[in-house]
Amino acid sequence: MNALIQSKKPLKSNKNICIQLANLVPYNIARIQGLIDIGFNCKCLLSYESDSFKPLRSKNHNLNTHIINDKNIIYKTLKTIFYICNNNFDIVFVSGYLNISSLASIFGAFISGSKIILFSESQENDKLNRKSIVEFYKKLILNIFDAAVVGGKSHKDYLSKLGMNKYVIFKGYDCVDNEYFLSKSKAIELSKERIFYLCTVCRFVKKKNLFNLVISYKKFQDKFPKYKNAKLKIAGSGPLREILNLKIKNENISSVELVGPISYIDLPKFYSESKGMLLLSTSEQWGLVTNEALNCGIPVLISEKCGSKELIKEDINGYIVNPNDIDSISLKIKNLFELSNKEDTKSKCRESISKLNTLNFSNSCLKASMKSQKKIFKLLGFFFITILLFLKNFKITESQKFEA
After folding, report:
1. Which residues make Cβ contacts (< 8 Å) with residue 149, sequence separation at least 6?
2. Which of 55, 70, 213, 390 has the fewest Cβ atoms within 10 Å of its own Cβ atom?
3. Number of structural domains, the chain?
């Protein structure tokens, strides 16, 4: 079996699986295609067709999808449970266990006898003050899962701390379509006259720490005048855009440009023409832009709060910083420019992300699907899932969130 798992040839499997997701963004499409490539028969249960954030809007696909987007939570719950039960899935993969779609999918999977695998990106440090009663309730809920597929080490450690057996937790969830970014970026001809710039790609929300980013960049240019013509281009949109734009104008920071949302098809070019990427979030479960940037051959300056920091090796493919230490950030920005000019940086960046791909994710899902939780523990987890689902239904209505 181990030989099969390591093989790059598609596995033949008759397993019918359901992948419960919020929506079909490009990296979810890549993940599901990876599962199909190793033989799974996949159906996708979605809350929404796509994402409101332009870089994450769906590209064309021919996946088998079913959307349940009722705003009435009771209707949404019942429709989700009936969908899971009527399809007789062998395995149901669920994204988390706190929203209605996930809870109803778990409920339906349990009563229909399907295995239940958790997708989790939660780290212990995602919240500063975790409540002990909530953490204890999570421990009880986790009993219902047969296994889990998580982002990386910090996510595995957190699930282990909550009581899940570390031998049923597999890493590799946080991947992108490596081949897409690799091939597109290699095909780009870089002009010798191009403007040097660093880039950031994100939603304009509080946790992205954009004000500290702008202040740090200004301080960097004040410290190192030789980089006075280097730009910082911030791509994205969101509720803080106007306030950030006003901050930039008031402080006369002409080197920072808000370039607006960039479509998925144009992202490889935006990354590849830059000298590096910055991600200074104060909280970030992973940060898939890190994967994208490394595939395009550019180094990354990343916050120590991001799950994807485990991909970064100092002075090889980037740097890790305290997102609130502006002096340190300004110095590391200089280091990032210098690192980008080294001949072997591009190849080292690409090599560092090469193994975190959709095949690795699919194999983790395959390994997880072979695990089974004891029925008595699953029953305990089901009891507490049912209570939480019942309480959530008191809310009656649900609306699409601007997800960050």
Report:
1. 93, 117, 118, 119, 120, 169, 170, 171, 172, 173, 361, 364, 365, 368
2. 390
3. 2
Amino acid at 66: H
Residues 197 and 313 in one domain: yes
Q: Secondary structure of the chain: what % helix, strand, coil (to 5)?
A: 50, 15, 35
Which structural domain range is residue 206 located in?
178-353
Indicate if 209 and 325 belong to the same structural domain. yes
Buried b (16+ CB within 10 A) or exposed e, 22-44: bbbbbbbbbbbbbbbebebebbb
- Per-residue pLDDT of 249-299, as tens digits, reads 998 899 999 999 999 999 999 999 999 999 999 999 999 999 999 999 999
Asked whether residue 170 falls in the same domain as residue 84, the answer is yes
* Residues comprising the chain, all counted: 404
Half-sphere exposure of residue 73: CA atoms within 13 angstroms, side-chain side: 17
Query: Tens digits of per-residue pLDDT, 73-107?
Result: 999 999 999 999 999 999 999 999 989 999 999 99
CB 1 within 8 A of CB 328: no
342-380 confidence digits (pLDDT tens):
999 999 999 999 999 999 999 999 999 999 999 999 999
CA distances (Å), 123 to each of 166, 169, 291, 307, 320, in order? 15, 14, 18, 7, 17
Which CATH number fits the domain that encloses residue 87?
A: 3.40.50.2000
Q: pTM of this prediction?
A: 0.91
Q: Are residues 34 and 127 in the same domain?
A: yes
Are 115 and 29 in a shared domain?
A: yes
Model confidence band, residue 129 (pLDDT cutoffs 50, 70, 90) = confident
Within a domain: 321: yes
